Amino acid sequence: MADRKKQVAYIDGLSSVRAVRRSGRNADGTHYRPSSEKLPVVETPSDPQPVKPAKRIGQTALPAKFNLICYECGFRFVISGALKDTLCPKCHAVLSARDHRINSAWSGVIRTVGTVSILPGANPEGGSITTRLLVLEADAGSASLTVTDTLELCTGGSFDPTRASLQDVSVRADHCVLVRQRLQCRNLDLHGELTADVAVTGLLTIRAGGCLRGSAHAAHWTVEEGGGVCARMTIAPGEPHAPATGDCTPTPPRKNSSRKSK
Fold first, then answer.
1. Is the model more confident about 121 or about 31?
2. Which element (helix H / strand E) includes 24?
3. Residue 170, SS3?
4. Torsion from C-alpha of 22, 23, 28, 32, nearest 10 degrees
5. 16-to-7, 11, 28, 161, 218 alpha-carbon distances in Å
6. Collapsing DSSP states into helix, strand and coil, what is residue 188?
7. Cα-Cα-Cα-Cα dihedral of 224, 230, 236, 237, to 10°?
8. Calpha distance 53→68 (Å, rounded)
9. What is the pLDDT of residues 93-110, one digit of tens each?
10. Domain residue extents for the chain
11. Cα 173 to Cα 240: distance, rounded to the nearest angstrom
12. pTM value?
């Protein structure tokens, strides 16, 4: 069988012109009428405003930082964020961040990088406490205290300085504290009243409303307006070799003696 040839249709120029004319006539029909709905016109401003730079954030909330000392190896390090159980970077011991509140008879061992509060009514009978922050509102008794950050003293709080290893000591505002034995620490911050013989290797700060009575030896000291000092002060670097003696009774001024002229 012979192959059938495919028939190809060709359109000449005259036919194409007639087709264009017929399409123009059909545009007048109902199917090609312009739409009655008008599209919204976007107006471009004649004077475009310059793009303003983005506003900077005025304040940012920085995470809290905590200075910790491992109670296993003594390594110092800093953590940021929430205080929780953590690992020592040196010895890899798990350090507990649990808070403890003592308000009754107690005897045992507490080791934490959190806070320990000895509240009124507490009766520690020996034992050992190692903590980052210690709030003392009652007598610590014969308990051995190791505070790696701050000891906060309140009215009624007392302890044996010979059985304590301290860094910083603070007295809360509107509280009066009496320490009968010599108190040695790194920094002392007084918002309330303290009567003691203190030896401060760092900075002694007396805030407005605070007062120091007794005697003190400090490398540096600052007294804010409204703070009071009724103590014998020794400002010198290092620790004194012997405890200073003094009391809060001011020395009366000497009377000037004048000779009678003949």
1. 121
2. helix 13-26
3. strand
4. 150
5. 20, 7, 20, 113, 109
6. strand
7. -70
8. 42
9. 999 999 999 999 999 999
10. 92-235
11. 28
12. 0.69
